[in-house]
């Protein structure tokens, strides 16, 4: 399988506040990315899937990566 890099933008609810997020991950598909977002936000912030709203998932080129950890992996 070919691994691609995706940039995900969205919001999540924590308490009474909405927070924007932008994350970059390596994955094989967009559905893979959705699962990663739900798992990571759920374990890190203790929130449910219905508290996370994914607004966009876009494939990006390696040279467009902003996240230093993802850059290091590449």
Automatic annotation (TrEMBL):
Keywords: Ribonucleoprotein, Ribosomal protein, RNA-binding, rRNA-binding. GO terms for molecular function: large ribosomal subunit rRNA binding; structural constituent of ribosome. Residues 4-58 form the Large ribosomal subunit protein eL20 domain. GO terms for biological process: translation. InterPro entries: Ribosomal_eL20, Ribosomal_eL20_dom. NCBIfam families: PRK00773.1-1. Belongs to the eukaryotic ribosomal protein eL20 family. Part of the 50S ribosomal subunit. Binds 23S rRNA. This is Large ribosomal subunit protein eL20. It comes from Methanobrevibacter thaueri. The gene is rpl18a.
